[in-house]
TrEMBL record:
High-level lineage: Eukaryota, Metazoa, Chordata, Craniata, Vertebrata
Recorded superkingdom: Eukaryota
CDD domains, A to Z: 4HBT
Pfam families the record matches: 4HBT_2 (PF13279)
Entries under Gene3D superfamilies matching the protein: Hotdog Thioesterase (3.10.129.10)
Cited InterPro entries: HotDog_dom_sf, THEM6_lcsJ_thioesterase
Name of the protein: Protein THEM6
UniProt-listed PANTHER family: PROTEIN THEM6, PTHR12475
Provenance organism: Periophthalmus magnuspinnatus
């Protein structure tokens, strides 16, 4: 009987210290994507289907933070199927979210089905830039749209693309709205560096 109490105590400690459901869901998403056909077009749109559950809501519609969580899982699937995760491991690199912005256009309500459409839009010398859209399954309305800056550490997007394609890949043009957002990120970084005195230290 003591081992049952020990197990329950260990599970309680684990669920108290970690977001266990997040890691379980991430594992399932990656495993499912692993067994799906690979996507050789790196910039191709990939779609995950979802439905708003009681675990997602506040005031009968999807909680704002849930959109970002679902985008995480969609990116895991995207990078697994298009080979980016594999290339990152081969190059001993890493990727982190450097910035994101989301616009909420219409609420996704309890029980509503949607498609989460993700694609790599373009990249620069430090990061990939992705667009992720929540599209209502009932009428095709874009309920939310997010831009994500996926920063690459210990490598570059160009090296990842060359590893995948075995050739130099032309960088797609930046859409105008994405250019404005990237300019905002750059201006914000410069202001924060100046505020903390980092600009003076680097002179």
């Amino acid at each position: 009987m003591w081992w049952v109490l020990w197990l329950l105590g260990a599970l309680l400690a684990l669920f108290s210290c970690l977001d266990v459901w997040y890691f379980l869901r991430a594992g399932v998403v990656i495993l499912k994507a692993w067994f799906q056909p690979p996507v050789f077009d790196i910039t191709a749109e990939q779609i995950l289907s979802g439905r708003v559950t009681f675990n997602d809501i506040d005031m009968c519609h999807m909680n704002n933070a849930r959109y970002l969580r679902e985008c995480d899982f969609a990116r895991f699937s995207l990078y697994t199927r298009n080979g980016v995760f594999k290339a990152v491991r081969a190059l001993r690199a890493n990727m982190v979210v450097g910035a994101n912005t989301i616009r909420y256009r219409r609420a996704l309500c309890i029980g509503e089905a949607y498609e989460l459409r993700s694609r790599i839009v373009t990249w620069d010398d430090k990061a990939f830039y992705l667009e992720q859209r929540f599209v209502s399954s009932k009428d095709g309305v874009v309920c939310a749209v997010m831009y994500c800056k996926q920063s690459v550490i210990r490598s570059t997007p160009d090296q990842i693309m060359q590893h995948l394609c075995k050739r130099k890949v032309e960088v797609p043009e930046f859409p105008e709205d994405l250019q404005h957002w990237v300019s905002f990120i750059s201006a914000s970084s410069q202001a924060l560096r100046a505020e903390s005195g980092l600009e003076d230290k680097n002179k």
